Amino acid sequence: MPRVGLIGPGRAGQALVRLLPPAQYEIGPVLSSSFTSTRRAVRRMRLGTAAASYDEFASCELILIAVPDDAIAVVARDLAAVSFPFRGKVVLHTSGALDSSVLAPLRARGASTGSLHPLQTFGRGLLSLAGVTFAVEGDQRALRLARSLINAWHGKLLRLKASQKTLYHAAATFASPLFTPLMEAAVRLMGHAGVGPKTAVRALRPLLATTLENYMHSRKQSWTGPLARGDAETVRRHLEAVGRVDPNLARYYRAAARAALILFRRHPKLQRLLQKARIP
Length: 280
Ligand SMILES: NC(=O)c1ccc[n+]([C@@H]2O[C@H](COP(=O)([O-])OP(=O)(O)OC[C@H]3O[C@@H](n4cnc5c(N)ncnc54)[C@H](OP(=O)(O)O)[C@@H]3O)[C@@H](O)[C@H]2O)c1
Prior knowledge:
The protein is an alpha/beta fold and 280 residues long. 50% of the residues lie in helices and 14% in strands.
């Protein structure tokens, strides 16, 4: 049974190892940025053993690095400095934006290297990775191991070239990290309209669900509302009212509305109006 070590037991790392079938993978050492947080993570996961140094990863076939993107290069450099051999080991990182070249020091030590990015958000506890797409790239051996992990999670594999990763990840950023603030903007404006956050979230849910469903069915043809119709007077009233209660949200609205009209090549007059609209 392959022994898996985890460096970076944060949101993504914990979920990924927790959802591996225990009959197929053994979770070994876990290491975080401090021993206190490592122990806390191991207690929470009820899996693996808290490691105090990289030396404890000598017995792992797979080392999964799930630290923030900016820390991967440092982890790769420091891990590569250990004395145990890397031949036969696979090291994968979980970043969406970076490719496996960031693991070059480990590759130079004989490790197979790759990246495996779950196209999923781990903001809350997740019960399954079934149906989730994983973008993978790397050398042959790393890809083979990534494929068996994805099968174990019942996920879907998406092969990417290293050069495609940053754009792929920017695309994913539109679908989740840039989407959450849009919803928060809607809830805040409901607050200014006198509707509390709980009621607002409940009321917006069917609208959101149908918007998503419709988009899946007919993509940009599903676009509705004042921008799609080109209702300039309504848009002008929105900007004025939002600008009075929250100028930052009015600027957000203006920028998003203009970008949407340019994206869909609709209503050039309204595009110009939005460009010129002044917000206090
Ligand atoms: N969150 C998501 O939804 C998501 C989805 C797909 C992919 N990813 C990818 O997964 C990776 C981690 O993201 P995340 O959101 O899970 O981050 P996170 O929740 O902030 O967790 C990062 C983990 O890395 C540890 N860490 C930081 N620096 C370290 C170092 N130098 N050595 C060892 N451990 C270190 C942190 O320990 P401390 O707690 O002690 O600081 C923490 O356990 C990123 O590459 C991200 O792109 C995340």
